Amino acid sequence: MNHGRQISLFVLPLDTPHATLERVGGKGASLARMAAAGLSVPPGFHITTDAYRHFVATNNLQKTIQKAMTTVNSDDLATLEDSSTCIGIHFAESTIPSDIVEAICQAYVRLGGSEPATAVRSSATAEDLPGASFAGQQESYLNIRGEARVLNAVKRCWASLWTARAIGYRIRHNIVSEEVSLAVVVQRFIPADAAGILFTANPLTGARNQIMINAAWGLGEAIVGGFVTPDTVVIDKVSGMMLTKEIADKEVMTVSALHGTHEEPVPTNRRRIAVLSEAQGEALRCIAIQIEQLHGQPMDIEWAIADKQFFVLQARPITTLPEDAVGTGIASVKEWKLPKPGGCYMRSSVIELLPDPLSPLFATLALPIWNQATHEILREMGIDNIVSHDPLVTINGFAYYDITITPMQAIRLILMVPRLIAFIAHMQRTAHLRWQQQARPAYLAVINKWDRVDLETTSATQMLNRIREILTVAAKYYLTIQDGILLAAYRSEAIFTVVYEEFIKRSDDPRAQAFLLGYSSSPIEAEKSLYNLAQWVCSQEGLADILKNMSSEQFLAAYRSEHSVSGNQPSWSQFQRHLDAHLARFGHAIYDLDFVKPVLADDPTPLLEPLKFFLSGQASDPYIRQATTTTAREQAEQALLSRLRGIRLVLFRRLMQRAQSFAPLREDALADVGLGWPLLRCLLREIGQRLAKARRIERTDNVFWLTADEIETAALALDSGRSIESYQTSVIKRQALWRSTQKTTPPVVLPKGGRTRFLGIDFSRWLPAATYQEISHVIKGIGASPGRVTGPVRVLHATDEFNQMRPGEILVARVTTLAWTPLFTLAKGVVTDIGGPLSHSSIVAREYHIPAVLGTGIATECLYSGQLVTVDGDAGTVTVINE
Length: 883
Hints:
By secondary structure, the protein is α+β, with helices and mostly antiparallel strands.
């Protein structure tokens, strides 16, 4: 091991992407995530668990620990104290190895200043976990100055892993002590004027839409140690309204001493006044929301304020939150109750376009229309009297297919197999024709009919009728391509792949997918269009620099503005026209079938980062990439056609050509599912604007959080001039419930652990996500695009996060639809919760020559932005890198 390697092994920067739980402990990992996200975290560094283990190994302390632990009884405090004392003495007598000393001292000097004051805090690998916070189990030392005192504090932190309280806590929570390690976080000490604790959910009632803040003068240790009764403020998380405010008589505060801290009385004139102003409470609310969103769960946060600046000192999950949010009706998803006992439910097919919980309006307006269109298809197949229930249902807010089949229904379906095979064969033969000459023209006709109508003179009821018409034709369009183009594409590729891999391919031949790449399709054409736009921008003096320096907010405001941008009026006006032309062709691509999500036609900001990447000159030319791929495909085809003979040649040519004919059509057909969504959203937002003007909802987009019955009642009232009830309280509750539910990963099959076999065939390999997988450092999925890369993760949940994506990152999402394609330009690899070898993500990833692992089921749940992973598209694994 070389010297530089030792330094990086023992000490890491505070915001490092290598700050895993195993390496820097729970507290350290949380601080690293917040620091990397730009939150105001005091500067510092991690002393890793490798340093602790090296210290233990060098001083031969493991034998002492094991011997001391043999006599421990968690119910007998005396044995805990005896073991702790024995271990503590040996730690105190041990020497920190010189290579660790050097690493710590160098990092300490980099904090700046002459002997800067620091906070030295323990961070255990079994700390701040979702099921056990370990709060207060290890030690922290404040206002520590000088290298010698910092080193001594570090050693005392290491020893605190073996206090009687920490040992007993681990035993009670079934955590093997010998497997636990400890890191240390060293940060600049904040001499706080005031400090406290913040809970992003009410810890007393469980209300997820409330924030509770405790505040006291001086350092926060007075609150943590129970020396003072703090002020308590409860704030509505959504509106910022102060719900309750209790000003305590704060007698004591913790303040800095020459070395360390001490308690002293609060001056009389400050004891009974509020620590926080309303503005400061609002600032903390914003910080709380950001931290909760970053961690994806309710958090317990320690904060401080010094010289009018807020600092986040640490954040841990709230582990004792009541299940029900009193007063909101919100409950965390603990049980997946089936709509009918004995039923079977699955998330597949169109539900791959509905990864999140459904908005109330989509669930109550669109889903019934989709079910009605599906029943029409079942009638054509002659099985509507067998499968009579609604195929699409919601469970805990998520869409599921009800695939419940009774034994008698199964028998009747088996008897109808010849008829069903004939029907499916007919659908396959007419797939292209029905899509190109029937479904798509019918869809466009409805859009064109209503797109020319003046909305200002149209009644709300008329708009609602148009919305239903668009949804109906959209559902029929999807169902047409589902049993036609999509099924033909999936089937032809699967058959070609199996035959080729099993009977034709030699070891040095390319993969089957290589014969299906290089064709033009809607995603590829959209990328070329954006690339062309970037090329044009580069030809306009100064315009590229303007775009490169724009934030998402500035870009959207400038795009929608008719005014000049930095004196570039002619070029900017032309840019707007060019972008409009791009959006006219591709702006209807959906991120999610649920129309609560905007499309590019509404908001083109997701195109900004890919556009900047093209402007940087570092992105590959899509024309060259496609041409290279096409040439490789044609050469591979020619080589096989020249080599093969007889039946193998006939099979190869026939199956390959059929798969090739449908490969680009699949993406083109899917690209147009959202053809009506720009108009649909425009109509809904017009109704929302009228409701907002009538002060029935707060914002235009809140219309998506109404139900079908509510929007119908509201439309009638708007048209007749009658008074309308306010929906704002209901909207706030539903949005809070949606945000809470969104953090849940829905099971692919219900009941959980349900059978994935039918007629002796195991269908689990074709499911869009893993049905069950333990969270570990290796996440398994489906290798959908070959290759192996290592890079930092970027977890994205929504369109408003697209601007966070940077070149060279691993894109991690629940699912990617066509509107996500611009991010593939930036991505080094792709990982999804939902998807398979024939999904959009895999097709596009192959065209971009980047590895993809899909259908993991849990990637967005257990990975976080900045984390370093290796994506192996051949093995179908995502491995978290610990170093």
